[in-house]
């Protein structure tokens, strides 16, 4: 009963239309009623211990969905047959984190319902729950299966790098069926988590439109030429580093953001207006809705996916 109410509330929040489409919120409520709670429990414990892994999982969801759709292809370990899976692509390695939490959630779910819940949905639930624990928001739907294709080269092809300008960002989102509003809303995820210095050192010396005060702070924390063995991390949102809130948009307005891709949101009047609106008012609900849309990219069905027994290897 509680579950049904929760689903209903979620449906209203993510808009009824989405719930009635092919993405079924509460897909597992008949097939494996405890699934979502089991995942939430594991994620809650992990995030309380280290909020950073929550940020890692939110990013993991994005990186999974933008490459081969939301199919958990990002989780696959290298094998002799596929020595270069997505996981090892430059946007993911070594920065992507939270894999152990997904493993723990999957094994906990397998104990209660073996072979029912896909790894893709575990990432989606975990990203939702991580967002929830870091703020208070809603659920993306379940129902996708896991893919078998995972290629490192595709991470570079589809994941936008931090130096992209607005035109390029809009292009990479459009290629995945997301629009410019989704870009502005989802970029707000940079209100949590961290970045390695190598992702933004080019912006620390003039000419740069980074706030000079922030640039000074970062120059003190980052080597001039970071390399693989010397690449410290800094928080993305210096004001509320672990809170899923609209502070990101205030940071964008104040030019207190790390990447060109963040600053670029001010480079067109319509996106700048959106940034200003989110800086003033509510963002969380828009984010929840956009995360659901993100979760709908190139959804796999049983025909081209599978329920893996372990998320790191295909069955
Ligand atoms: C718009 C294009 C985007 C670009 C260019 C971008 C780029 C980046 C980069 C370079 C980092 C730092 C990685 C590192 O050096 O450790 C990062 C971190 C992060 N990104 Fe994005 N990102 C984008 C969109 C998104 C979206 C759509 C989401 C989720 C909805 C997201 C969530 C995150 C999170 C949560 C982190 C922190 C991860 C951690 O702490 O481990 N990003 N992003
Ligand atoms: C990635 O590499 C595979 C084979 O190694 C190739 O078939 C595929 O087209 C490449 N994808 C991209 C986006 O370059
Ligand atoms: C964005 O970058 C692309 C590729 O470098 C370039 O062709 C385009 O003119 C740039 N757009 C803007 C608005 O700067
Ligand atoms: C990385 O940079 C540090 C100094 O910043 C240097 O001591 C080290 O040799 C460099 N490592 C590599 C692998 O280039």
TrEMBL record:
Which EC numbers does the record give? 1.11.1.7
Which Gene Ontology CC terms are recorded? Answer: extracellular region
Known cofactor(s)? heme b; Ca(2+)
Q: Which residues form the active site?
A: 63
Domain annotation Plant heme peroxidase family profile: ranges: 22-315
* Subcellular locations according to the entry: Secreted
Record-listed substrate binding positions:
160
Looking up InterPro entries in the UniProt record yields: Haem_peroxidase, Haem_peroxidase_sf, Peroxidase_pln, Peroxidases_AS, Peroxidases_heam-ligand_BS, Secretory_peroxidase
Q: Which PANTHER family match?
A: PEROXIDASE 25-RELATED
Protein family: Belongs to the peroxidase family. Classical plant (class III) peroxidase subfamily. Belongs to the peroxidase family. Ascorbate peroxidase subfamily.
Q: What is the protein name stated in its UniProt record?
A: Peroxidase
Species the sequence originates in: Oryza brachyantha (malo sina)
